[in-house]
Amino acid sequence: MCCLRRPLVANLTQRFTSQMGGRWMSAAMAADEIEQVTPRHAWDILSENPDAMLIDVRTRAEWGFVGVPDLSTLGKSTVFVEWAKWPDMSQDPAFIAAATAEIGPEMPGTMLFLCRSGVRSLYAADAVARHLRALGSGGKCINVAEGFEGDKDEFSHRGRLNGWKFHGLPWVQS
Fold it and tell me: What does CATH list as the number for 6-172?
């Protein structure tokens, strides 16, 4: 299994710091501890590992207006839990409780976290990983670094450089 190289993680860390003003936690801490994979690699993990689960931490508005990953060909469903609440994008203090309720009593061995561009999902993955460690429980938390829509291009459009949709992975829109 191949992870993203350190410079890509550094770019993700820099994006978080500039976008969110460092409000949630140290970006370097999460980026150093959580494995980062591309959407294609995430799809491979989901395809090859029957225990792997995809957790989409975007907002309800994003799920409804932008679309969601479609795992039906894998016989799986995406788990949806908001990391931050619209419109102020403040972190949901009940995220861990909501995530564990949605995941269910049988914690999967591998959990992949996805957001718009890979920033919020990094922190959601880190939060769940820390929670599991505190419980003395297993489970690997992985961030889908490019996210669902990917980074902005020179015209500030998403979906043209990278991301789940850019790579042609299955998705649906309501």
Answer: 3.40.250.10
